[in-house]
Amino acid sequence: MPFRILAAVAYLVVACAAQAQTYPTKTIHLLVGFAPGGANDILARIIGQKLADSMGQSVVVENRPGAAGLIAAEALAKSAHDGYTLMLGSTGTQTMAPHLARAPYDALNAFTPVALIGSTPNALVVRPTMPVGSVRELIEYAKSRPRLLTYASSGNGTTLHLAAVLFAMMADIDLIHVSYKGNAPALTDVMGGQVDMMFSALPPLLPLAKAGKLKILGVGSLERHRSAPDLPTIAEQGLPDYESGTWYGVFAPANLQMGALARLGVEMKKALDDPKVRQSIQAQGVEPQSSTPEQFRKLFRDDYARWGALIKKSNIKPD
Questions:
Q1: Whole-model pTM?
Q2: Dihedral of CA 250/255/258/260: which sign?
Q3: Which one of 76, 165, 280, 317 has the minimum C-beta count within 10 Å?
Q4: Contacts of residue 83, Cβ cutoff 8 Å, sequence gap at least 6
Q5: 70: phi then psi, degrees, rounded to nearest 5
Q6: Confidence tier at 12 by pLDDT (50, 70, 90)
Q7: DSSP 195-216
Q8: CA–CA separation, 228 vs 234, rounded Å?
């Protein structure tokens, strides 16, 4: 390699290391695309406080709700690339919403995925009187009754709706969608028998299943979940590769300065290795998961393509 190229590479390495040591020198703003009190907001405050304590600078959580997270994402896309504006993103905001509404930015290339925080799988539940006890039995039952079984969701184009669409497509069954304005009323009607089934985040379902208010047939993760090791996955019940859930992670604008990315990567790993932080995240029904920026970038891009293809093929429109 010519001396000039070696010198340039050495300069960049030194410059990035120096920036990583000095960053941050002022307040960091962590955007959230939803109102205070939800999972995105709570996770942002948990991570933000830990980053502030570790890096010695304030981290201010800013709620910019609206348009399924697109308002906050647009603000992030238009911010400086210096690491002082970040966003707590999720599967829905980063990989689904841009396909459902015209995003005012290049959704695939406008961001730098910094680090994964954690994820929670969806689970397939049915009304307590449904005469099935497994995913295989449900599929057989649905095939014998085309367009007679109903499934609830928290709204068109939501993660729970798309989880059911993917399931029906892979199982080759024909179901009727009943859209609700939120997860709680949808789940209430499944428990009451007004709707046959739905997908929902696993952890809150466990006490309801224990009380006999519904039946959990399968988990949407590829491996059995730590909180319910006796529950089989959907993938192991006849639908290999079925996977649905929600992940959460920190994003920065595209072309984030390398020094800031390096420092944030180190600090995020440190945060997720902290037992108190992990406990706080788990209390929200989310399983902590650390990653490198490269690993998180691959997850983001793979899911963006996967859910985008499903939305296009199913012609799904938001409410």
A1: 0.90
A2: negative
A3: 317
A4: 23, 24, 28, 252, 256, 257, 260, 261, 263, 264
A5: -70, -30
A6: very low
A7: S-EEEEESTTHHHHHHTTS-EE
A8: 14
